Request: fold
Amino acid sequence: MILAEGDVALSALGPAIRWAAKNNLQTLHVLAEDTAGQLLRRAGWFNEPGVEIVVWQVSGTTVQAATADPFLEVPELGPDIWSLAGLMTESGARPVDDHGRLVAEFAGLEIARVVREESGEVVIDVGVGQADRELHHLVHSNLATDAALKRAVAMVATHRSSGAPFHPLNRLARERWLRSMLLDDPSLVGAEKLEPVPPLRPRSTLLGTQPVAAVGSRPGGQPVIAVTSVGVDPDLVPEAADYRGRFDPSAELVIVVPPRDRYELTLDLVSALGHAELVGLDPPWG
Reply:
């Protein structure tokens, strides 16, 4: 029995499944409060022989069987918002639906986003992060949007390229940088085509790591979902399984990390999913 609580509640599931399998437990009981429904949904993706996973909802002093939560719906982007995607593409950036927000990414780093002003007009707000967007308004307010986007792309490209020296701009959103590599060359994971999909939940900051995904197909037509991440993340495999469940449960799942991040825990959990593999991809940051 484990108690999953606090900010790391979701991250408890993967290590708990591995611990139960290693100790030949027949039943794993997981107790949680706010995350019980998510944990139950994620537990359903695993097929660890001989281990039954039971999730309990804790509310005060009451404990009852949890009910699986549905996936969080992604707000639909209107045609007026998507009409600005072409300007992003022309600048050398990639338009991406970031859970109901259209952003422009270069090498996986957000350099601009579409915002709706109080008047109802939609505009492209250029900058890496809130502080940079505010600075852009102050210093480059007279610069045309297309010129501002190209300037941002050129600036980020200097620091976010293979072999570039250390800089804060090549430390951010590295999991998205890996996804960008796959979008540019799907054959890196044996795919014929890949398209980015929105994250499972809104992103509140550029800091930290949040696995991201792309969906597509193999040359033979078999659907595939690639999920990228970096570093130590006990929640990676359950989250990757959630991506597959959200977008195409029949797809092959490929989890992509830098070679040094192919940890034993991750390998064990991938094997418990079925139709999944863990791929090490050399990152451009070395």
